[in-house]
């Protein structure tokens, strides 16, 4: 509890400042107060928690699963094959130079308002940090340890599984902590540009009604999801990476 105390104090302080300033401004459709946002979440609790939140979660877990498999697989392939590195590394970087807001409508055009248009946006955003961090982690293994294992007769695959892969775990978990919030943003962007359900779609619908609190309500849920997901990843990280200092 003491470790989280600074974050709690700062968060409460910022929320109080936000509440006071929003009430002083008295323009709730521009800057709603935290209490107004919570009230809106309560008023629309059935739609938010039974319709739109499950729709976004479905996009998230499918998109993250594909991103993890694609990112880790591509990183391992580039690490083990110099030809693959020269072939795919430039494409990996180029995939991040195209604005997501330009591709999302194209995905909607291809796949309609189905879940796959949102999943593709999520994957395009989330797989890059996983692939790059995993690739750099595999390459960061100390050469002295690799040479030591070769001296003892270890094969290339034994070095990979026993040394290189464990050495890459810290970077991989750091990538997960980046990719999860990015995937939430990707899902929301995809739903904002074309969907029939989801937190992004709900926020867009509230914006057309000039309902500031309604626009912020799903954003609060998205932020809460990201915080919880990163907290869970940190717990798993501490369990499996015991040599890292807290």
Automatic annotation (TrEMBL):
ABC transmembrane type-1 domain mapped to chain residues: 53-237
Name recorded for this polypeptide: ABC transporter permease
Domain of life: Bacteria
Signal peptide: none
Compartments reported by the entry: Cell membrane
Matching PANTHER family: ABC TRANSPORTER PERMEASE PROTEIN HI_0355-RELATED, ALKANE SULFONATE ABC TRANSPORTER-RELATED, MEMBRANE SUBUNIT
Pfam families assigned: BPD_transp_1
Membrane topology, from the record: Multi-pass membrane protein
Keyword Transmembrane helix: yes
Annotated transmembrane regions: 7-25, 59-80, 87-113, 119-138, 172-195, 215-236
Keywords annotated in UniProt: Cell membrane, Membrane, Transmembrane, Transmembrane helix, Transport
InterPro entries (alphabetical): MetI-like (IPR000515), MetI-like_sf (IPR035906)
Recorded family membership: Belongs to the binding-protein-dependent transport system permease family.
